[in-house]
Write a structure and sequence with these properties.
The complex is a heterodimer of chains A (225) and B (458). Chain A is built from eight helices and twelve strands. Chain A has helices at 10-22, 33-41, 59-68, 84-92, 105-119, 153-164, 172-179, 190-202; strands spanning 2-6, 26-30, 47-51, 75-79, 97-100, 127-130, 133-136, 141-144, 147-149, 170-171, 211-214, 218-221. A five-stranded parallel sheet of chain A has the order 2-1-3-4-5, with helices on both faces. Chain A has a four-stranded antiparallel sheet with strand order 6-7-8-9, with helices on one face. In chain A, helix 2 (33-41) runs parallel beside helix 3. Chain A starts with a strand and ends with a strand. The mean pLDDT of chain A is 88. Chain B has helices at 3-8, 10-76, 149-199, 215-264, 269-302, 313-330, 349-366, 422-432, and strands spanning 82-87, 93-96, 111-120, 123-135, 141-147, 309-312, 334-339, 344-347, 372-380, 383-390, 436-441, 446-451. A five-stranded antiparallel sheet of chain B has the order 2-1-5-4-3. In chain B, strands 7-9-10-12-11 form a five-stranded mixed sheet. A two-stranded antiparallel sheet of chain B has the order 6-8. In chain B, helix 4 packs antiparallel against helix 5. The two termini of chain B are 55 Å apart. The chains are: A alpha/beta (225), B alpha+beta (458).
């Protein structure tokens, strides 16, 4: 996919471009708001990564102008301002996700991929399927290989989020934000414990595990060969 | 103190304003009295003259020329203020105590105001007089009047005292204004001096309080309270800076040393990779500490009242307990929840969740296996409170205040992971909500309670 990075710190841009290329993506960059705006208007990008504080045109205004022109390219804001208010401001300005600096590259990559996937035409899904694991969103039922699996409400939401992002890496922070709606990091890694519980319910007794740990990044649910 | 400064003080201007207003009222009042009194006296004079002249005319009509002459002569012997002149048609005096007809034209109604010579002892004085004249049959004329010199003297005296009173009022007012402004200016100068000293860096100075409990005293007390708060915040800030320096410098130093040592070792991919992984872990820890510090700073100063909303405390506690329940179970602890319904508090959901998560996290971390952690949210006699109780080692009574400070970790827990910032954040969040954080003995273990202030009845 094609990523446009609008960020004024050349070193940070260099790392990002390099990391994205390593991960098989195409990345362009602009180092000030006006240039970034011109390039973003050209469309053709799958996702924009925009720093909030930019010379020329600040990130919030830039995205506001793009949205006013009807440009719907998904936007991930990067910012050193990390309070809940700042986050809300970013999302109100038209951002789709908000990542606070400093961030792990794996976190950035996972979020970019999640944004692009979300953009694909999503037919009104009532059923999710990964391998022989099936989730019925209306009946709130989960079945694997014909066996009904009983899940707690929160476990259901956790699995639903993972299955909606099947094949992608989902980080612990993404889970905490989207499943629990918490924007702080708990000192103990509580997410790992919840994942291992879920894993015990959906993978135990099956030959091929679906819920995988991606070292140093997060989790991924996918059908393994 | 320069006089020009004195004149510019607001007290003096106020005093001056009142003075002008008061001076005008006094002048108006006295002027009214003067005008009324003199008018009354003049009217009485005129009425007396008119009555007398009517009487004399009646006399003339009954007794004729001779009778009138006799009466005028009789009355003229009276050396007081009555003046008479009875003349023939050529205005030659027939009787009376005025020597000659005054050389002024008669006004309306036959009234005349004139000056005449009057012998007083050996001297002759010029006196003012007022008289009315009456034309009698046959061209004879009668003039009846009063010497008004005394009346004029009285009027003059009233006018003088009026001027004196107004002048005295203005003089006293000015002196009073100066004295008052001088005392206020002195005290305000005291406040200014203190402010200058404080701006110059002497934060220990305080504004003098006179003890009279007036407006200036209350201002001074408020300023002093403000200064106390600023001094407390500055001390806190200095403390934080020192702590950050200590708690961020040591790991940064460790990180840097490791990288330097790795570079000195013979190059090998394995050792480089291991060093990089450790470095990322260290950076991660540093970030956690940093984020926690920012969180505390936000709770202490950045959070705005408009972020506060009505929250269901029971639901909030349930969510946090649910997040940690598997962690407790993994450690062999029982985590139970006792939450009432309809416990509404005004608060910031994110900060309160984080504070509660920190308490539960601590409880799980410090309670040994097969212990119990209990989360309660309830209304205790009108006070809404949320508590996390454990059966761990607890905190000795003497240490309970201290553990709320930043970076404080008890000796017994030095080895377990943690930044020493968890309880500081809880304390800061409690303060933000006007709530009270208490660490109590759970016999055995620790019971941390956040008690919310009573809500104003709405």
């Amino acid at each position: 996919m094609r990523v446009l990075i609008i960020e004024d710190d050349p070193e940070a841009v260099e790392y990002m471009v390099k990391g994205l290329k390593e991960s098989g993506h195409v990345a362009d960059h602009a180092i000030d708001g006006e240039d970034g705006f011109q390039m973003a208007q050209g469309e053709g990008y799958d996702v924009l990564v925009v720093d909030r504080m930019l010379p020329g045109l600040d990130g919030l205004s830039l995205v506001g102008r793009l949205r006013a022109e009807g440009n719907q390219t998904p936007v991930l804001f990067l910012s050193a301002l990390g309070t809940v208010d700042d986050r809300v401001k970013g999302l109100r300005a038209g951002g789709d996700d908000y990542l606070v600096k400093p961030y792990a590259f794996s976190e950035l990559l996972a979020r970019i991929e999640a944004l692009v996937r979300r953009q694909r035409p999503a037919e009104a899904q009532t059923r999710l399927r990964v391998g022989d694991l099936e989730m019925d969103l209306l009946a709130r039922r989960v079945v694997r290989g014909g066996t009904r699996i009983e899940l707690q409400p929160r476990e259901f939401r956790l699995l639903e989020y993972l299955m909606k992002h099947a094949g992608q890496v989902v980080t612990r922070t993404m889970l905490l934000e989207n499943v629990w709606e918490y924007h702080f990091d708990p000192q103990t890694n509580v997410i790992d414990v919840h994942i291992s519980r879920l894993r015990a319910k959906i993978d135990k007794g099956f030959a091929r595990p679906l819920l995988n740990t991606v070292r140093g990044a997060g989790y991924c649910i996918r059908e393994t060969e | 103190m320069k006089p020009s400064r004195l004149l510019r003080t607001s007290t003096f201007r106020l005093a001056l304003g009142y003075l002008v207003l008061f001076g005008l009222s006094v002048a108006a009042l006295l002027g009214f009295i003067y005008w009324n009194t003199t008018g009354f006296i003049a009217q009485q004079t005129d009425e007396t003259i008119a009555a007398e002249i009517t009487g004399l005319a009646e006399q003339y009509r009954r007794t004729g020329l001779a009778g009138l002459r006799r009466i005028v002569r009789e009355r003229s012997r009276d050396q007081r203020q009555s003046l008479y002149l009875f003349t023939d048609p050529d205005r030659r005096s027939i009787a009376g105590n005025l020597d000659s007809w005054p050389e002024v034209p008669a006004g309306p109604g036959g009234w005349l105001d004139f000056a005449y010579e009057r012998p007083v002892g050996a001297r002759v004085e010029t006196h003012h007089a007022r008289a009315r004249h009456l034309l009698l049959r046959g061209g004879f004329e009668l003039l009846v009047g009063r010497d008004v010199e005394e009346r004029h003297a009285l009027e003059q005296r009233i006018r003088d005292s009026l001027i004196w009173v107004v002048a005295l009022t203005i003089g006293l007012g000015l002196v009073g204004g100066v004295v008052m402004s001088r005392s206020w200016l002195g005290r305000i100068d005291g406040i200014n001096r203190t402010s200058r000293d404080i701006m110059a860096g002497d934060l220990g100075r305080r504004v003098p309080v006179s003890g009279s409990d007036d407006e200036l005293d209350r201002l001074a007390q408020n300023l002093n309270a403000m200064l106390d708060e600023i001094e407390r915040l500055m001390a806190g800030m200095r403390q934080v800076t020192d702590n950050i320096a200590h708690d961020l410098r040591s790991p940064l130093n460790r990180l840097r040393s490791r990288l330097e040592v790795t570079l000195l070792e013979p190059p090998s991919i394995e050792s480089y990779r291991a060093a990089l992984e450790r470095t990322i872990e260290d950076a991660e820890d540093l970030l956690h500490t940093f984020t926690a510090l920012l969180g505390i700073a936000y709770a202490e100063s950045g959070a705005k009242p408009e972020d506060m909303a009505d929250l269901d405390l029971g639901a909030l506690a349930r969510d946090v307990a649910e997040l940690y329940e598997p962690v407790a179970e993994d450690k062999g602890l029982s985590l139970t929840l006792a939450c009432g319904d309809g416990l509404t508090v005004k608060g910031n959901r994110h900060l309160l969740s984080q504070a509660l998560a920190n308490l539960v996290d601590n409880a799980i971390k410090y309670t040994p296996g097969s212990g119990a952690v209990v989360v309660t949210a309830r209304d205790a006699n009108g006070t809404v409170e949320v508590a996390v109780a454990d059966t761990g080692p607890g905190i000795p009574e003497g240490e309970r205040e201290r553990v709320l400070d930043r970076f404080v970790r008890l000796e017994s827990s030095r080895r377990s992971p943690g930044s020493g910032l968890g309880l500081s954040l809880v304390a800061a969040v409690a303060r933000l909500h006007g709530a009270d954080l208490a660490l109590e003995d759970n016999r055995p273990g620790l019971r941390a309670v956040i008690r919310f202030p009573a809500r104003p009845a709405d």
